[in-house]
Amino acid sequence: MYAQMVKTDGTRIRSLDEMEPEERAFQERVDAGQKIEPKEWMPEGYRKTLIRQISQHAHSEIVGQLPEGNWITRAPTLERKAILLAKVQDEAGHGLYLYCAAETLGISRDEMYEQLHSGKAKYSSIFNYPTLTWADIGAIGWLVDGAAIMNQVPLQRCSYGPYSRAMIRICKEESFHQRQGFDILMKMVKGTPAQKAMVQDALNRWWWPSLMMFGPSDDASVHSAQSMAWKIKQNSNDELRQKFVDQTVPQAEYLGLTVPDPMLKWNEEKGGYDFGEPDWEEFFNVIAGNGPCNAERLNARKQAWDDGAWFRDGLTAHAEKAAEHRAAARIAAE
Ligand code: FAQ
To answer: What are phi and psi of 38, to 5 degrees?
Structure first.
């Protein structure tokens, strides 16, 4: 159904027959599963949607370094410290691939940062919650990276080449991240009663925000229909949320934990779990900038940008000088 329809404004979707020839040819290529590459013609809306999603994804990766970075100096052993350092560094790498993918669409890195710092661009709601204990670091790996993988594996098949290719490497690394989180929790649940209680407390606090990572429910998702028609998204927000719950509940049981949802129940008929509604008021409040850590996260990013000004200035001065030397050498050679 989606393959035949393209949205034209907030509500209406156009069929192939209603499209101009160029746009129709584009849609047919997408429908046939061909990848779209940077220099090729694309509808302006497709370009804008990709810039929005990829840049917000990139921002999520680098803002996502902050809650875990908070624990690098307090990791309980040298080994855990080295692992966490590597993970947090991976997130910077993910941001880098994604900013590069977005740049191929004609937006500069500086513009994207400006949109993040001014609050115009969003980043994932999940990173506006605090990491209070070491168990939170396990919960982030298990649940947050777990949700990220569930969302990103289908993005490997995204119609835009650079984004889909970036996702392949990112997913491989996320898989290591998820297992390291689960490993932290496995150790802790086999520890003292206090350690096990700490893990349950972390699950209680991270469960609902993790479900919110998949975005609003399908009936409130403004971009899904068009993004699915363009094969940017392969699945709806609710489909992926359901898959995540189905995958994660048995893992919680294996850890001996209770998922904090009284509505959670296996539904034999649908072959999946029924579960409660996330608190959507809280979700919209967090993405509007009013979550527990929004101000802290954004201030940390702005501070990093300001602190790096001398370095950017140095690089620019060096590039200008090098260009002058090259020009002088060219003139001398003529
Ligand atoms: N948080 O119409 P839809 C990670 C916004 S990476 C904030 O459904 P769409 C790795 C949405 O932007 C996590 N805002 O939108 C890691 C839109 O607002 P806009 C990030 C959200 O785009 C792990 C409005 O609501 N992953 O975790 C959220 O079709 C550990 C309406 O929503 C990605 O970005 C949210 N949760 O679907 C790093 C994956 N949900 O833009 C460090 C790529 C929705 O009109 C440590 N992105 N909004 O102002 C996607 O798959 C999609 O963009 C969705 C949203 C599914 C997030």
So the answer is: -50, -45
Ligand 1 atom, smallest distance to 214 CA: 56
How many other C-beta atoms can be found within 10 angstroms of the C-beta atom of residue 167?
24
Q: Is residue 232 within 8 Å of residue 53, measured between CB atoms?
A: yes
223 lines ligand 1 (CB under 6 A): yes
Question: Whole-angstrom Cα distance, residue 231 to residue 287?
Answer: 25
Q: Report the nearest-CA residue for atom 50 of ligand 1.
A: 53
Q: Of 52, 53, 235, which is best to mutate to test ligand 1, by the most ligand atoms within 8 angstroms of its C-beta?
A: 53
- State if residue 60 touches ligand 1 by the CB under 6 angstroms criterion: yes
Query: Contact at 8 Å (CB) between 102 and 50?
Result: yes
Closest Cα partner for 261 from 210, 214, 189?
A: 210
- Over residues 66-108, the pLDDT tens digits come to 999 999 999 999 999 999 999 999 999 999 999 999 999 999 9
Question: pTM for the whole thing?
Answer: 0.94
30: Cβ contacts below 8 Å, ≥ 6 apart? 3, 36, 159, 230, 231
- For 105-127, the pLDDT digits (tens) are 999 999 999 999 999 999 999 99
User: Is any ligand 1 atom within 6 A of the Cβ of residue 221?
Assistant: yes
Q: Are 97 and 160 in contact (CB under 8 A)?
A: no
Long-range pairs, 288-294, Cβ under 8 A, ≥24 = 289/119, 291/125, 291/128, 291/129, 292/128, 292/129, 292/130, 293/67, 293/127, 293/128, 293/129, 293/130, 294/128
